[in-house]
Write a structure and sequence with these properties.
- The two termini are 16 Å apart.
- The chain has 20 helices and no strands.
- The chain has 502 residues and is mostly helical.
- 82% of the residues lie in helices and 0% in strands.
- 43% of the residues are buried.
- It has one domain.
- Helix 12 runs parallel beside helix 14 (345-360).
Length: 502
């Protein structure tokens, strides 16, 4: 009981720090982006979005090995097996040294062929800017092992504080430089220096908490650990590939088949979605280490109960966010960057539905990570990647749907692959139970979501005043949550569990 209480306390602390700092960072990112658009223009905004996608493609070199190794840390950290922790960390350090070298080599090669990824004239200084971009990526791997240990040991709040301090400082300086008329290159130089400083600072803090990280002597990893790592790494390679195609090719497809301006328009919406995704995932990531810690007890019935409580809680949270997006997304874009950057209503709705789909998956993904179920999903991500890319190109190239096309492509890959394959892995190999209850809950949640969206559509068409819309949204949200609190036992238990531990 005491261990369960400790897990709840650790999850809550990580979640509170993470969400507060992520929210403040998100607010600042909107300020920075607003000034970025006004000072540098939509073309550089599109270029920045393209760089992010190219960088995610390059992240395939990491192969997901870091995640596989970090998930192996849950049990030795729980049992305080220092020697095994040291051996795993030593392996991770050696791996990331090679990753830094590979990123620099691959990035240098991609710089030469950068014009091939852009439809039209390449902006001034784009090649040098991309060099700064991939060097920043390489810098993030400098001391990433320190962050890995802290998060696996349920101390993610320390990482959250560190990231916030340096990112906030970075954003303040970037705003000042943009206001003074400095260019995109200076903007990226500031980002690079902040990344290096953040990693060095976190390194000092983590070595103070875990003095053994400074030790160079390590024991040979047990054969059982090596075998488990080998399977997990193979599984993560395909998962990494699928994840990269799923999240990193949209802007690339738009840039190659349409233009950078469209990429910039889409980037405004994805900035909002990514910000909200980061906030929600901060909550989920805060409990992933605790799920891993719970898994060491091998109490599958207890884990199953925890799964459904978290699944309902996550679903209801993202429903509330989705409904708010339906009411206010376009109005926010108009106030933030201007009405000319608004997308069509059908495209906006598709983006909202995709957000809901992606976030509904996150609890199952957290249980996969906590149980190191990477080998079991080795084929899933390959099918997911193929379906997503094929439908995206089909909709953009041949049906000329532009942004709506890439969004529909991702929705199709979720519907055809992820909705059944990911939970199958969790329930078969992690929780060791049937999926009947899962499908009942899944269809109930999606039915509630669709019916609610239809209802909100009619309400929104009748209410046009912004202030009245806010009041209507608040009233409907309160009613919605109270009804589900009364009707859904898992949601009610989760809320009482959280409140009871405050």
């Amino acid at each position: 009981m005491e261990q369960g209480s400790t897990r709840v306390k650790a999850s809550k602390k990580n979640a509170i720090y993470g969400v507060i700092f992520q929210f403040l960072t998100l607010v600042m990112s909107f300020v920075v982006r607003s000034i970025f658009i006004r000072k540098l223009g939509n073309e550089y905004l599109g270029l920045d979005g393209l760089f992010k996608n190219l960088l995610n493609l390059m992240s395939f070199t990491e192969l997901g090995i870091g995640v596989a190794i970090s998930s192996s840390l849950y049990e030795p950290l729980a049992t305080k097996n220092t020697e095994l922790i040291k051996s795993l960390i030593h392996l991770l350090k050696s791996f990331y040294r090679w990753i830094i070298i590979i990123i620099i080599i691959v990035g240098s090669g991609m710089t030469i062929y950068l014009p091939n990824f852009i439809h039209g004239q390449i902006p001034t200084g784009a090649r040098f800017a991309f060099c700064l971009y991939f060097l920043n990526s390489a810098a993030t791997y400098m001391l990433v092992v320190n962050r890995t240990v802290l998060i696996a040991d349920q101390r993610g709040y320390i990482n959250s504080i560190n990231q916030f301090v340096f990112l906030f400082g970075q954003q303040i300086i970037q705003i000042i430089m943009l206001m003074l008329g400095f260019n995109y290159i200076i903007y990226l130089v500031i980002q690079l220096f902040a990344t290096v400083a953040s990693n060095i600072s976190l390194g000092f803090r983590s070595r103070k908490i875990y003095p053994y990280l400074k030790e160079h002597s390590t024991q040979k990893l047990p054969h059982s650990v090596i075998r488990s790592l080998r399977e997990n790494v193979i599984g993560m390679i395909s998962a990494k590939f699928g994840g990269i195609v799923l999240t990193s090719t949209d802007n690339l497809v738009l840039s190659m088949f349409v233009n950078l301006g469209v990429v910039g328009n889409y980037a405004n919406y994805t900035t909002v979605i990514n910000g909200l995704t980061t906030l929600v995932n901060t909550l989920i990531q805060a409990i992933t280490a605790s799920i891993g810690n719970l898994g060491t007890e091998r109490d599958f019935k207890k884990e199953e109960k925890t799964f459904f409580q978290l699944y309902w809680g996550n679903a209801i949270l993202i429903m509330n966010i989705s409904f708010g997006l339906y009411f206010f997304f376009d109005r926010f874009i108009s106030l933030w960057v201007g009405s000319k950057y608004e997308l069509s209503e059908i495209t906006t709705v598709a983006i909202i539905i995709l957000f809901f789909q992606n976030q509904l998956r996150q609890i199952a993904i957290s249980f996969q990570i906590a149980h190191s179920l990477f080998w079991q999903q080795r084929y899933k991500s390959l099918f997911e990647a193929g379906v997503n890319l094929a439908f995206s190109i089909l909709f953009v190239r041949f049906f000329h749907l532009e942004i709506l096309g890439v969004v529909l492509g991702t929705i199709m890959s979720n519907l055809l692959i992820n909705t059944w394959w990911e939970p199958l892995i969790v329930f078969k190999s992690g929780l060791h139970c049937g999926m009947k209850r899962y499908w009942e809950v899944f269809f109930a949640i999606n039915g509630i979501y669709v019916l609610s969206l239809i209802g909100i559509h009619f309400i929104k068409s009748l209410v046009h005043n912004f202030l009245i819309q806010i009041v209507v949204y608040i009233v409907l949200s309160l009613m919605f949550n109270l009804i589900l609190m009364a009707a859904v036992a898992d949601f009610r238990k989760l809320v009482f569990r959280i409140i009871g531990k405050i």
